[in-house]
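Onboarding guide, step 5: your first structure request.
Type a short instruction followed by the sequence, for example:

Predict the 3D structure of this protein.
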Amino acid sequence: MATPHRLVHPLGMVTLLGAACLVTSSAGALSVAAPLLPSVSATAAPPGSAVPVAAPPQPAGPQPGGLTAVAAAAPAELCNNLSVISSWSLSRRAAQLVAVPAAETDVAAAAPAVAAGAGGVVLYGSSAPANLGSQLGTLEAMDEGGLAPLVMTDEEGGGIQRMGNLVGSLPWPATMSATMTPAAVEQAAEQVAEAMVANGVTMDLAPVLDLASGPGPDATHIDGPRSFGTSPTTATTFGLAFAEGLEAGGVIPVVKHFPGEGSADGNTDDGPASTPPLATLESADLLPFEAAISAGLPAVMVGDASIPGLSQGPASLASAVITGLLRQRLGFEGLVLTDSLSADAVSDRGISVPEASVQAVAAGADMVLSNTTDPNTTFDQTVAALVTAVSDGEVPLMTLNTAVMQVLAAKGVDLCA
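The system replies with structure tokens like these:
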């Protein structure tokens, strides 16, 4: 995972519109520098080439021989990620959508979920052990399907650094924008990213693109100094510099908390919260995210605050936010992650993590995050809930497949290689 590589995507043109995936016949190839992949789109191949657009029939269960045997069994001209994952069991596919939490001092605790195919691992803590990289290497090797999880954590700067003792200290984003140039921020983020990769972590749940100032983070204010400032120009300039530094260092940046929680009336970690109406967000808070999408950044985290006029509940569970606003209106084609679905903004509404995960995936999310006291049980329950939802038609099969392809694309995986 730590070594940059190139992905050849044999699907041809893939356009993502929320849950839908339209595949234009093509034997063309897309070469995208990994680990940064803003979409699973490809340019069409020369006329006359063809790849079947329909997924092969789905067998009742996993195929003998695992992923390698499945990929090898298909003729090269017919093989693509969709054709391979269509032969996986539903539970194998659902597992790729789940990021399981782990204390950075005890990453082995996530082994059961990783062995079952968890798509990601989220590290929590404030001081990582010196041998974190080797521990993560052992953990990643436990995936029986041969697909290492995305390993992610929060390295925002200031008081939100999970492994600052290993990667170096960064100021709060508000301090960065006040005391550093964008070039200096980019350079600092690149150095941190290189150290993250050296320690086995290749996704940063940062930068925060919310517009905020004042106190926090606390029960009332979600951001405070986590934000680069209240000006859309400042947040965009410094936020993108931070993200581009992460990219240069080999780490996937995840901009958050879409569509902007800086003006929310509470902290979603501590209870339900609401932002100003969408019309207000459009004039300021949404602008840094629009710029990030235009810049081709690869991943977006959707927040848990509700958006008056757009969602009655958490944005992370709302199709109007993910499919309607983020995908269709703004044209984002990269990886969509949820903010924590165990946050009080979700749980106080009586929605469990498995239930919330189903709602989020149905709304268009590709990967669901949470932080519970029994993460392996939560993982098992979430996978089971997603399988049931697909089997019952609550989540269309193509929605599941599209999300899996997004996760594989973020990992830089070509199942036919």
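Each response can be followed by summary notes, for example: The mean pLDDT is 85.
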